[in-house]
Design goal:
The protein contains 9 helices and 9 strands. By secondary structure, it is an alpha/beta fold. The chain has 2 domains: 75 residues, Winged helix-like DNA-binding domain superfamily/Winged helix DNA-binding domain (Arc Repressor Mutant, subunit A); 112 residues, 3-Layer(aba) Sandwich (Rossmann fold).
Length: 215
């Protein structure tokens, strides 16, 4: 099945499969059925089989799934079998926290530089990652291959910076700024709106309280 026909919901579940399969491997599990995986993930067994069938199925009737094989195959589907060079725009609290996150490099996401406009931050490092002046962005991109740019900056600056990134050929933007970006069709944007996530959590909590009749 062509990738364009696969729903966003299926794609959003793939990282969960990958994470749970990684945990199973660490526990020494070699084989698992869709039913057993369903119990762990709280996704129906039929949904698991349906999701994986988009990519070839991977299971054998009466045997289930080879955990390590399925883990590796989902990693390939997610593009984790290659190294993605990443830059972070914004070296404040969020940008620094992202640069310090150890699992990125384990998953093949290599943060190579941060950029900022604050002269007090420029020239410092986060671990061994340099913080560079934002006005050198184009020069850096001309000399270094970058696959993903992360925006950890205020929304007032995000649109302009995104335009600069696109003009330099960056094809993927991980956007933490509180604004939606308009980019060409060949540029992929993943928006991460933290406040919206918190509001959804608030809604679910409020609904739960109303159902239980509690304050």
């Amino acid at each position: 099945m062509e990738k364009s026909t696969i729903s966003r919901a299926v794609i959003q579940r793939l990282p969960r499969y990958y994470r749970y399969l990684g945990e199973l491997m660490s526990e020494g599990c070699q084989r698992i059925s869709s039913g057993e995986l369903s119990n762990r993930m709280h996704v129906t067994a039929s949904q698991i089989r349906q999701d994986l069938n988009h990519f070839g199925g991977f299971g054998q009737q009466g045997y289930g799934y080879n955990v390590e094989y399925l883990y590796n195959e989902i990693g390939k589907i997610l593009g984790l079998d290659t190294t993605h060079r990443v830059i972070i725009i914004g070296a404040g609290n969020l940008g620094t926290a992202l640069a310090n996150y150890p699992n990125f490099e384990k998953r093949g996401f290599l943060v190579t530089a941060l950029f900022d406009v604050n002269p007090e931050r420029i020239g410092q490092t986060v671990g061994d990652i340099p913080i560079l002046p934002l006005d050198t962005l184009e020069d850096y991109l001309a000399e270094h291959p970058v696959h993903i740019a992360t925006l950890a900056i205020p929304k007032t600056a995000a649109v302009g910076v995104a335009e600069r990134l696109v003009a330099c050929g960056v094809k993927a933007i991980w956007n933490f700024a509180h604004t939606d970006l308009t980019v060409p069709d060949d540029v992929v944007v993943e928006n991460v709106h933290l406040s919206e996530s918190l509001m959804r959590l608030s809604y679910n909590l409020s609904t739960q309280k109303k159902e239980k009749g509690t304050d």
